[in-house]
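Please review the protein record below. Tell me whether the encoded fold seems credible here:
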Amino acid sequence: MFKIALVDDSVILRSAIRNVLESSGFEVVFEAGGSAELFSKINGSGVGLVLLDIFFPTENGLDILAKLKKHLPAVKVLMVTGLRQDTIVAEAQRLGADGILFKPFDTDELLSSIHRLLPKQGK
């Protein structure tokens, strides 16, 4: 099963995303409110995808992305942001983001963004 981590400072948003993902058959391994919690939980968790917010009250999601890709380059990262700014999108891509999802998004957008990042499996 594909394992997902949710990293956002909004507990409400994390809970809503978790409900959608789990009802769609995904396993949410853990949630984190920031980088310290993310890095304390991710090693050995088997996470294949991190949904990562870009804006936090005390840190920058792009910095978290850079650190995550440096330490765990195989983990896919889907950035989540409410700001549609070309420079931010370009920087996220440069740092290794595997996709960007813009808030507000609906269930179909969330699931299709994740499905694009799933490992391809032969049937």
Notes: The chain is about 40% helix and 20% strand. The beta strands are 3-7, 27-32, 49-53, 76-81, 99-102. The two ends are 15 Å apart (CA to CA).
